[in-house]
Design goal:
Layout (H helix, E strand, L loop, with lengths): L5 H25 L3 E5 L2 E8 L3 E5 L7 E4 L5 E6 L7 H12 L3 H36 L1 H10 L3 H18 L16 E3 H5 L13 E3 L4 H28 L11 E7 L7 H12 L2 E6 L12 H10 L4 E4 L9 H8 L10 E2 L5 E4 L19 H17 L4 E5 L7 H5 L3 E6 L6 E7 L5 E6 L20 E9 L2 E10 L5 E3 L3 E2 L2
Parallel strand pairs: 3-5, 8-9, 9-10, 12-13, 13-14, 14-16
Antiparallel strand pairs: 1-2, 2-5, 3-4, 4-7, 6-7, 8-17, 11-12, 15-16, 17-18, 18-19, 18-20
Length: 499
């Protein structure tokens, strides 16, 4: 028997490898799953090739599905949540929907990770039979080929295939959860009735229409809230693009300061629009991004990180960011927190910060726990003054409550203290020391328009506040405050030059 040319043999092996790898990767992909925090739920995400996004909400609310826009589909099974009532849960959905890009990106990232993992595993698994075939040698391969048409050969192939499948395939079956009865899907418009005006982006959404009338009313109310909130914040973001803000001069660096978002993800797009209009390159987050610091509020942190993913970012935790979750989560998403040391800040400045000591589990100073607000204030001043004496002056002190920086200012060890906490703008106010040095304290309003610990809703509950800090020659040079009224209109304060 004449031998095939070497290049033809190699080509055949590559083709077989790719074919086997494709089959294996497809199997791995369709049996993959990830658990992620989505829309304040712990959710199980599984991919498929239905071309649909299906959200399994549980026994009370209707399941939802829509077109994914591609061959790849996904099923999202919502798990546990901390919502105390159905009304609270639907209100959350409406608020999250007003800026849902971060949640969509999170699920998309999970699907991409599963796809990449499946391809890598498929390529590796597909290579094993090729390597085995090559290592057997020509004589042994000939013997195997001769035995393939026999019962023994077929049985051997089946055993090998079953072993490989058993070792590599998760035992949950293909696709999502099986259904005992055929699913009856109806359009969302049919489900809620003609009295509810649907936004254009919900026109193709379908639901399983087997829920009670009270649930229909809750869904209809959530749709109204979603539409109102989405329009309100989109209009505000559009208006922000036309604000008359001071433009940075050559050599200046502008930083957006925000605080007290309290889960209002709708305002994130407005904050971004203000930052872009003002020429900001970085963000200071003075804390209270959440209401409780619990894991269900990951949607708020995802939105913040997604909105400013291309900015330099520094943050501290506020008194409502209880525990360590908020800090660790945002740190993983690229935000810089502080470990009691002066670090590089924007515009060739030096910055120091500390988490609010009233946050449960936070406020430790150099490994000392249970310190009071006054004690942390004193330790913070000592650290700033020690750095100043060593020639490493703190240009900006970032805290949640500006009162935490009072002592550092009064001792003349920092140039600018910025924070939030009160939900009301104050300053910039000069603070003069006995020897004539001047520093400034500034408190920004609530970026989430929060009247309480949580700012989920269709509109602002109170005026929202943002600020643009300008740095020049490595020092804070000025501050301009921006207020978003509850009507969606803007009030821009004059730019205040810092001495």
């Amino acid at each position: 028997m004449s031998r095939l040319p070497g290049w033809l043999t190699a080509t055949a092996l590559v083709v077989v490898w790719l074919a086997l790898s494709t089959l294996a990767a497809t199997g791995f992909f369709l049996t993959s799953e990830r658990t992620v925090d989505v829309a304040s739920h712990e959710a199980r995400v599984t991919p498929d090739f239905t071309g649909e996004v299906v959200v399994r909400t549980g026994p009370v609310l209707p399941d939802v599905r829509t077109d994914s826009g591609s061959l790849v589909g996904v099923e999202i099974e919502l798990g546990k949540t901390d919502a105390r009532s159905l009304q609270e849960l639907t209100a959350r959905y409406a608020a999250i929907g007003s800026n849902s890009d971060a949640q969509i990106a999170k699920v998309s990232d999970a699907v991409r990770e599963m796809a990449v993992d499946a391809v890598v595993r498929g390529l590796a698994l597909g290579l094993l039979p090729i390597l085995g075939w090559v290592l057997l040698g020509a004589r042994r391969r000939g013997e195997i080929v001769e035995h393939l048409p026999t019962r023994r050969g077929v049985a051997g192939l089946l055993v090998i295939a079953l072993v490989v499948i058993g070792l590599t395939t998760p035992w949950r079956g293909l696709g999502g959860a099986s259904q005992d009865q055929p699913e009856r899907w109806v359009s969302l418009a049919t489900f809620v009735g003609p009295s509810v005006e649907l936004p254009d982006e919900l026109a193709d959404v379908e639901v399983r229409g087997d829920t009670a009338g009270e649930t229909r009313r809750l869904v209809a109310s959530a749709i109204d809230s979603y539409r109102e909130g989405r329009e309100f914040y989109a209009d505000a973001a559009e208006a922000a693009a036309d604000l008359e803000l001071r433009e940075p001069e050559e050599g200046e660096t502008v930083v957006l300061l925000l605080s007290d978002r309290h889960d209002n993800v709708g305002m994130d797009q407005v904050a971004r629009a203000v930052a872009e209009r003002g020429g900001a390159e970085a963000v200071f987050d003075a804390g209270d991004d959440t209401s409780t610091g619990k894991e269900w509020e990951a949607f708020s942190l995802d939105s913040l990180a997604d909105t400013f993913d291309d900015y330099s970012r520094w943050a501290v935790a506020g008194n409502h960011d209880h525990g360590t979750f908020v800090r660790s989560y945002l740190t993983d998403l690229g935000w810089t927190y502080f470990d009691d040391e002066v670090i590089d800040g924007p515009g060739e400045t030096r910055i120091l910060g500390v988490d609010d000591p009233r946050s449960s589990g936070l406020g430790n100073w150099r490994d000392e726990s249970d310190l009071t607000f006054a004690e942390v204030r004193a330790r913070l001043a000592d650290a700033a003054c020690e750095a100043d004496e060593d020639g490493d002056r703190v240009d900006t002190l970032l805290v949640h409550d500006a009162n935490l920086g009072d002592e550092a200012l009064s001792r003349g060890c920092v140039d600018l203290v910025v924070g939030g906490h009160t939900h009301v703008q104050a300053g910039p106010d000069p603070v003069r020391t006995d020897d004539g040095e001047v520093g400034y304290t500034y408190t920004v309003g609530t970026a989430g328009g929060a009247a309480y610990a949580i700012a989920i809703g269709t509109k602002l509950r109170r005026a929202a506040g943002l600020a643009l800090i300008t740095y020049r020659d490595g020092e804070p040079a000025g501050i301009q405050s921006v207020t978003v009224e509850t009507t969606g209109s803007f009030a821009v304060d004059p730019y205040v030059e810092l001495e």
